[in-house]
Amino acid sequence: MTQRSSPSRPAVQGHLAAEQRTANSIYGVIVSSGVMASAHADSVPRLAVAVLVTLLVYWAAERYAHIMAGRIVLGPDVRWRDIPGRLREGWELVTASFVPLVVLLVVGAFGASYTTAVFAALGCGTVLLAFDGWRVGRDAGLHPVQQLFAASGAAAFGLVMIALKSLLH
Fold first, then answer.
1. Three-class secondary structure of residue 1 per DSSP
2. Helix, strand, or coil here: 114?
3. Each residue of 20-62: pLDDT tens digit?
């Protein structure tokens, strides 16, 4: 019987960090799309601010929860100087929204209606989610057909947001 060697602790930590960054990025696109689909802003700039503020609140809550939960493991060994590094983690939750927000603002700046700008941004978010699904499937070593299913499943979140926007407004 052949034994599989287990990855080293730094390798596992690196993989977990990459997983967390990818998850935060996907989550950021989904949350920003959800805000764009459901917010009742009266202008493109106000919607962009609403998206950013919402994501900052989610990021701050997520960081706070992780720092507090870290005390379970670290106990009294948590040091104030470690906090800035812990706050930098998870920032992908916010930055993942930048591309759809740029699309929102640019389409709006070119004179498109509010609704058209929002749908363009939601379409961009859907494409990003599909790309992330494909990339995750590829990196996981899935067969191309399985990668297509992973991309389709991820894109489904974006399509749901587009459907919500259509139904709510």
1. coil
2. helix
3. 889 999 999 999 999 999 998 999 999 999 999 999 999 999 9
The domain limits of the chain are 28-168
Query: Helices 144-168 and 114-139 sit at what angle, rounded to 10 degrees?
Result: 160
Mean pLDDT (whole number) for 71-90? 77
Query: Is 4's pLDDT higher than 60?
Result: no
Q: Which residue has the tokens 């709006």?
A: 108
DSSP structure class, residue 58: H
Give residue for tokens 């106990």.
Answer: 75
As a whole number of angstroms, the distance between CA 78 and CA 31 comes to 30
**Burial class, 105, CB count within 10 angstroms (exposed 0-12 / middle 13-18 / buried 19+):** middle
**Which structure tokens are listed for 161?**
């947001």
Distance CA 79, CA 81 (A): 5
Contact 92, 28 (CB under 8 A): yes
Residue 96 near residue 28, CB atoms below 8 Å: yes
Quote the tokens at residue 8: 């080293």
